[in-house]
Design goal:
heterotetramer; A: alpha/beta; Rossmann fold; 6-stranded mixed β-sheet; 4-stranded antiparallel β-sheet; 7 helices; B: alpha+beta; Alpha-Beta Plaits; rod-shaped; binds adenosine-5'-triphosphate; binds magnesium ion
Chain lengths: ~230, ~290, ~290, ~230
């Protein structure tokens, strides 16, 4: 378990409950914190609330009750105008990829850098490097529709990590990948983690964390089952 | 984000949504074209009417046996009245000739009649009489008070009819102008909204990867401005081309040849281009706003 | 697939795309409203002009000292001419009275003059003279050949001017009618196309689960027809409401009160509704066609 | 291995090659046939051509060369107007689900029956049954956006099987499911197969077929690696 105790946790959920309309309880009184530099798996059966938890962290949904702190700041207090700044600190691999269908692979990945305001050259260099590392070299000019499911998923991963965010939230990022590619992705995540990136990795694939000694958070029907 | 990046992104975006962009711009063009076309017709009708309208006036009959020296004084007094464009003295002989001309073949009826049975008179032309016939009445009332004036004729009945007519015309023109402007604006903004609707997923994704509202809106607003400019520009060029065609008589039947048409005043042209750009900008901005929340 | 299912699917679809559907229908409504509004103006102008136009005619002077018995014969010959609407006999006395009326205060000039110095005459009213002034010329030429006719007057100069004017008016009306129709059709079809574009993914999915083209198109065409009907219907209702308002003088300034306005002929109304439906149907059909291939 | 030799194979690919624009070879000279009632796994790394093979079978793409026969009919000879009839015989679980976002779960599943012209009552009965069997009972009125990734995937499965087609093409149908749900889906497929449905199941998850004695077709870079 990698953990660096340099003060406040980077992510904290304090008795967070998320209820969707029609009384659907997706998360029920979750309390959880992630230290800076931690690599944590989030697992649980289909519909147990993994994605919902991540959505709360990247502001796609708001908790019904409870507080969420990112880098010690209560996200309720973040002004609308400052949310983009926070979002840039968080690389998200969405479960449904969320690629722009009318931009090619390169542009999709470059987006995360454009948003921050990187220069043209730097964008080209970084994007090509990350595409290469995910086995997508030479596919930069293709459009998402012209890729296989697994390739699209890797583009989504590339976009999440290209601007080296301090936090990565990965939602089922290997669901469409074969075992070799899955290991490659895990290796990349490990490497990023070694450089200090905090990673929250949602997956239903028990094999990914079976051997490791990393922390595993288990959800079932919106409740946390096991701590460490 | 600097301007160059913004322009680059906007152009790229246009290229990627060519079909949509072209269709939306066409709607802008047509909406504006319709408005401009009717403005052009209106401007030309007004132009013709102005020229015709200067023939409207008041006839001032002087008292019989008036002192000849009073005439220049009356002339000056008439000219000094607000709204009077010009004043022409009609001598008894001139009035007699006019009557002869009117009777035409029947003028023998005047044989042996002395020209002096007709009084001296002034013809007073009134500015913009066609558009504000009530002026004639006002001016006639003022003239009546001048010393030496016997009678003032301005075709009361005729002026009343003209009042009704110009009243209707003004109402129709104003109503259709408003309707056209309103429709153009509405159609353009609906089209833009349909366009933004179709791309709401894209906006959502941009937001999720940390784009500021400015970053997301930037290219859209840029495109909207260009769209407004292009739409209005094309409409104006099309209109000008048909104007040239018509006024050079190339396409029109012979009898209109030589007719002097006027184009829209450049102030209106500039105004329309500006309005078109503002309209597209605002339409885009407000359509996007609801997708840019939270 | 029976009709009930089709209607149910169409209604469900409309409910699910309420915003888009409402916006598109609004565009249809506005486009048609604009066209109808100008049709209404045109119809009313035409209506007024027709009434005014019946005052146009040809004056036929008979030879001096003509045999009284010839007059009824001439009368019948005049009436038999193609395009002549009615014929009125103006006796010498009547002509004299008219001259007096024209001279007004100056009629003392006619004192002691015998009415018989004016010839007998006929006033011939010509059908649709305002819209086809050249008819006056043709009819005048025919009348000249009748026995006992001395002279025919129809205001040559005036007719020429009128010709130019009606020529311009006709061209403007036709051009704007075409432009408006074209624009309305174009804007509607573009809007429909934007709508279909936004839903192309849906069409693709339907195709992939084994829907026939008919199954996919069915509700869309149903909706389009309803849209055409609604769009035109609302436009007509709006127009009729404003027509009632205006003609009852509620909104208009006093002097137009009592003015008789006409509404569009019901044939045009039916035609526009039909066209609107066909337009929406075709627009939808052709927009969808490219997504329904293979 | 279940196999019923009652004559012609239900699906045949004869030297099929699929080249996408820009000379991307997705499938290279594939020859393969499936007997009626067979349950065949299609596996291979990401980008090896699994989805492309399935796309050819449901007419979403056309082969560059070679012939494909379904129920003995060369699909090249099928008229445009008859393709829907063939498509209804094939239930497809798409890798990206392809759910209609503006219809609820019930309507999405019902679609496959509406298209064929089932009656109102029959649709309700069948749809509710299949939703129940996939653990989606009571979620019929939700929209896809209101479901978790795994739930959406199960809706896609439900739509593919609801009209009991003779052929099922499943493209990575368990990528977003936990192991319990995955087994449930496999059981359902087994049951359908036992009733005579021919199933082609594309997956990168080796565990699904590790124990079984079913046929496994392996692709790598568009080429078939192993037959039986
Ligand atoms: N927008 C929404 N509206 C209503 N209910 C929702 C919504 N999003 C998710 N849910 C429900 O909340 C629960 C948790 O969903 P969530 O997406 O977090 O599950 P998950 O753990 O990610 O599952 P999976 O592994 O299938 O992706 C599910 O029962 C789901 O149906
Ligand atoms: N429309 C397309 N245009 C161009 N290339 C394509 C297109 N679709 C797929 N490809 C390419 O064809 C190859 C095979 O793709 P396919 O989708 O069949 O792979 P797959 O086996 O399904 O992979 P995965 O497990 O990742 O879904 C890939 O290299 C992909 O990039
Ligand atoms: Mg999830
Ligand atoms: Mg695939």
């Amino acid at each position: 378990m990698i953990e660096r105790d340099d003060g406040i946790p980077i992510i904290t959920l304090a008795s967070v409950t998320k209820r969707y309309p029609h009384d659907i309880v997706a998360l029920d009184d979750i309390t959880l914190s992630l230290e800076k530099g931690e690599f944590c798996f989030l697992t649980g059966p289909s519909g147990s609330g993994k994605s919902t938890l991540l959505k709360l962290l990247y502001f796609a949904e708001q908790p019904t009750s409870g507080d969420i702190f990112i880098e010690g700041i209560n996200i309720k207090t973040i002004k609308e105008a400052h949310k983009p700044i926070f979002r840039r600190k968080i690389g998200v691999v969405f479960q449904d990829f969320k690629l722009l269908q009318d931009r090619n692979v390169f542009d999709n990945v470059a987006l995360a850098l454009e948003v921050v305001g990187f220069s043209h050259d730097q964008i080209a260099y970084r994007v090509n490097k990350v595409l290469e590392s995910l086995g997508l070299g030479g596919k930069g000019r293709r459009f998402p529709q012209e890729l296989s499911g697994g390739e699209q998923q890797r583009v989504a991963i590339a976009r999440a990590i290209v601007n080296r965010p301090p936090i990565i939230l990965a939602d089922e990022p290997t669901g469409n990948l074969d075992s070799v590619r899955t290991m490659e992705v895990l290796d990349i995540m490990d490497e990023l983690n070694a450089r200090g990136t905090t990673i929250l990795f949602a997956t239903h694939d028990e094999r990914l964390f079976e051997g490791t000694r990393r922390r595993v958070v288990r959800l079932r029907d919106g409740r946390m089952e096991v701590g460490y | 984000m600097n301007l160059e990046t913004l322009v680059r992104r906007a152009l790229k975006d246009i290229r990627q949504h060519m079909a949509m962009y072209a269709l939306t711009t066409m709607v802008v063009t047509l909406s504006i074209l319709i408005f401009l076309f009717f403005s052009l017709i209106y401007v030309n009708l007004h132009h013709f009417a102005s020229r015709f309208g200067t023939q409207l006036g008041v006839v001032v009959y002087l008292k019989e046996g008036i002192n000849e020296e009073l005439i220049p004084k009356i002339y000056n007094e008439l000219l000094a009245i607000n709204g009077v464009k010009n004043v022409v003295y009609i001598s008894q002989e001139e009035a007699f000739k006019r009557l002869e001309r009117y009777l035409g073949d029947e003028k023998m009826v005047l044989e042996g009649v002395d020209a002096t049975f007709l009084p001296d008179s002034f013809e007073v032309k009134v500015e913009k009489a066609l558009f504000q016939p009530e002026r004639l009445r006002v001016i006639a009332d003022k003239i009546k008070k001048i010393e030496g004036v016997d009678k003032v004729q301005y075709g009361r009945e005729w002026v009343q009819r003209l009042e009704v007519f110009t009243g209707i015309a003004r109402n129709v023109v104003v109503a259709s102008g408003i309707l056209l402007l309103f429709t153009a604006a509405f159609v353009v903004s609906i089209t833009i909204r349909l366009n933004v609707y179709a791309r709401q997923e894209e906006l959502e994704i941009l937001r999720l990867v940390g784009a500021t509202n400015g970053f997301i809106e930037g290219p859209f607003l840029m495109e909207a401005m260009l769209q407004g400019l292009l739409g209005a520009g094309i409409a104006i060029v099309l209109l000008y081309a048909s104007y040239l065609n018509v006024s050079s008589g190339l396409l029109m039947p012979g009898f209109i040849k030589g007719l002097k048409l006027v184009f829209l005043p450049w102030e209106l042209v500039v105004l329309v281009v500006g309005l078109s750009m503002v309209l597209c900008l605002l339409g885009t901005h407000f359509s996007m706003r609801k997708f840019l929340r939270s």
